[in-house]
Amino acid sequence: MTERDTDIEFDFFDEPETEEASGRVRTPRRQSPRGPRRPVRPPSGLIPMLRLAGLIAFVILAVVLLVVLVRGCASDSKHSRYENYVSDTRKVAATSTAIGKQLNQTLSATGIKESQLEQKLKGLAAQQQQAVAQAQQMSPPGPLRVEHDHLVEVLSLRASGLSRLADAFRQTATAKNASSAGQLLAAQARLLSASDVNWDYYFRQPTQQELLHQNITDIGGVPDSQIFPNPDLASSQAMMSVWQRVHGAATGGNPGGKHGSALGSVKALPDGKTLVAGGSASQNEITASTDLAFQVSVENSGDFQEFNVGVILTIQKSPKPIVLRKKIPVINAGETKTVTFTNIDINGLFGLPTTIKVDVEPVPGETTTTNNSAEYRVIFSLGG
User: Fold this and answer.
1) At what angle do helices 236-250 and 178-198 cross, to 10 degrees?
2) pTM here?
3) Which residues pair with 285 in a beta bridge?
């Protein structure tokens, strides 16, 4: 083998080695005329921006939910404050109203003595003062502070009026002039009557308006309260009659002068048919309806004001009669007042003659009672 052959052989083995080495180097692929194809990537900075936008949206949603939650809690809290306050005022209103009922019973009671009346009034004044203390401990919602101050003032006025009324009875215990005594007593009674007006005008109505303004309508109405439900009793004439009756009881005597009550007309409603006493059942035919009622007129036939005049309506029915009772709180001399009996169950009486009796209970000192009652033969029909 010649040297040239050796060189050729060397060249032969050397060339593939070069090609193999170059084969390990990644040769670029054939490129299209448009140039090399690059991988698709988001624009620089877009991903951080998207993440930031998502974070901002999440924060906004969280803030909105938090605001809604806080407002919901605040609304519930506000509703509870108003509901609790109105509930507390109902308790005070009920207490004061109950005191008023006891006051009316005391002033219209027969046989009560001066000392007993004074003691009773002082006790009622003490009870009313406790209601004042109870109201002062309440915590009204901010918008109702003015109205609550008026509530406390009304209750204080009632406590003062009761105390002053007791003092007035004490001052007139030995008085000789009934008219002057009545005027002094009436001046104190008018304080109580005024407190009823103030409760409604300065507390109940504006409080109800504020509840509507606050859109709170599901907690019931603001309570009403009356300690002197019959303003007529606050007149000088009425209080003079009370004074005379109390002093008659204190001396162990009966009320002097002419006292009396008389039964007037009796009408069947809603027709307005006037019943005829002593008439036949056909004359007093009554059309039955769900609105059936009886209206009874009562006249004060005496010379003095009378209190708590009782009226009784009795309908004969087997096996047990229907008995209904009403009272006229106060009726002046010569005055006529009416009472109406409703909710009358006449099942089993249709087409059958029966008897209705009406009685007016005698007042203290009444001597003539022949005109206090009457009986009526009636028949109930379904009408046509």
Assistant:
1) 120
2) 0.62
3) 379
